[in-house]
Amino acid sequence: MQLAMLDFVAMRQIPVRLWLLAVVSGVLQVLAFPLTQQIQGWPVLAWAGPVFLLLALLDTNAEGQALTVKQGAAVGYACGIVWYIGNCWWIYQTMYLYGGLPKPVAAVILLLFAMYLGLYHALFGALMAGLRRLGTGWALALAPFCWVAVELARARITGFPWDLLGNSQVDNALPSHLAPFAGVMAVSFVVAGVNASVASVFFQRTRLRLSLAAVFVLVAGGLTVLPPLDMPLLNKHQFSTAVLLQENLEVGAVGKEAAPLTMEEKYREFSRLSEHPLWSPAATADGFAAWQQAEPAPAPALVVWPEAPADFLTSDERFRGILGDVARATRAPVIAGSLGVDRDPGVQRGYKLYDSAALIAPDGGFQGRYDKIHLVPWGEYVPFKELFFFAGKLTAGVGNMDPGSRRDLFHAGGHVYGVFICYESIFGDEVREFVKNGAEVLVNISDDGWYGDTGAPWQHLNMARMRAIENRRWVIRDTNTGVTTTIDPFGRTMLEAPRHVRGAYAMPFEYKSRVTFYTRHGDWFAWVCLCVTLAGLGWARLTQTKVEADALRG
What is d(CA 484, CA 446) in angstroms, rounded to the nearest whole number? Predict the structure, then answer.
């Protein structure tokens, strides 16, 4: 009880202005990312949002002293809760619209989610308060290292690196300079560094510090506005063609196509569309509109069916036969989202169930499947079932899946494909393994219908775009309701199929063989940042010990 009272007193010593700065920081960070289909966010705010958090963390409490570690954690926590509520508000819609939960319950789940993951911002606040013992200047110098170390923790501990700070910059040139070398977290480092440089102006007004801050900001700005490295001109004659089926099935479907189809109707309709694709009506890359008018349609090199709420089983002979017919008709391999089932008497239900992608060879033969490794918590499985017994099966069409264990590559037609499914696109260090092992092109199948028309489909798309940049690979992205597109090695979407429309669209891509430094070595830079952060904390601790020892001797 006494400890709780002491904590309460410590919290009361945090001035209101610091709470407000933390909230403003959280709001600005939210606005840097897509919010809805119409509001795609303002990425420039990422260069200013964390400034307000740093100003709060390095200010003084009501007694005029530096914030304690607990006070720093509390201020960071406030920012984190605001960030996750604003950035992931689509969880609320998913829970009540597709999970069938009452709106108040869905709101409580979103709040609990934000309170849980907001602990990472609390960790950042605690780290900054600890480093303050070295002085404000050193704390600001180490701030970008701390930021990246916390992002690494988000990816490795909780497994939810959704919208890392660097992802906000996917539309400018900065990632093309840094991500192939050190991944998206290197982009986060630069953005966080600029924020720390700006914050230093408010605390350290010496000419040297102002000059260093200005140099850092100018270098980062130069990397942002310079053209991306080695970006080639677009030439439609050099591309292969992928036929991407957008099924527009139950979850997230709208309009006349929202009515459910029987299994035979699905087979018939999807086969017909796959064998007679349309040209995408929306060219999004400069100078590439000619792709729409290309005649005759080139023969496809690949046909893809997305992850979707359809009971397609890889073991079903009828399903294999339909895909085989499509493969023979198009003379191309087919990759199709489906469910993998393996009998296993060792588990209670007698079988294991996987979210899978099946491969059919151009001759119609079944070649194998890839089983999704990184499952969606509370969507495809329920973590800590005893604690979250009420969650059960939150969304229709998904269930208690089993994780795959191998990142199998698909070999077909003399080429190598790496397939990652839905949620796996947010894990850069995992997607790179496909390319490291020989994938010439990446295929991302997803069902983003669960997100509705929130900002999540575009947030998800941008993270897939970052995977393309990191690995210098084309990403073929096929979804149930959109955004269906192909992404070039510089993160540019070539053509986008209209959302909420059933169809099959011919889109361009290329095979690549070059391997980037990031592909070979993964999140090495983030680990360096973690080591620097730990070293800084050790230094701060030694400094504090020395000060305490001097005080005792005095």
Answer: 9
Per residue in 418-457, pLDDT (tens digit) is: 999 998 999 999 999 999 999 999 999 999 888 888 899 9
What does the chain come to in residues? 554
Burial degree of 350 (CB within 10 A; 0-12, 13-18, 19+): exposed
Q: Which residues contact 391 (CB under 8 A, 6 or more apart)?
A: 378, 382
HSE-CB of 51 using CA atoms within 13 angstroms: 17
Interaxial angle between packed helices 174-182 and 207-225, expressed in degrees from 0 to 180 and rounded to the nearest 10? 90
Transcribe 156-223 into DSSP letters.
III---TT-GGGGGTTSSHHHHHHHHH-HHHHHHHHHHHHHHHHHHHH---HHHHHHHHHHHHHHHHH
pLDDT digits 0-9 by tens, 376-393: 765 555 555 544 544 554
Instruction: Please give the model's pTM, rounded to 2 decimal places.
Output: 0.90
Max Cα-Cα span within the chain: 89
Residue 372, C-beta contacts closer than 8 angstroms, at least 6 positions apart: 354, 355, 356, 380, 401, 403, 404, 421, 422, 424
Q: Which residues pair with 368 in a beta bridge?
A: 359
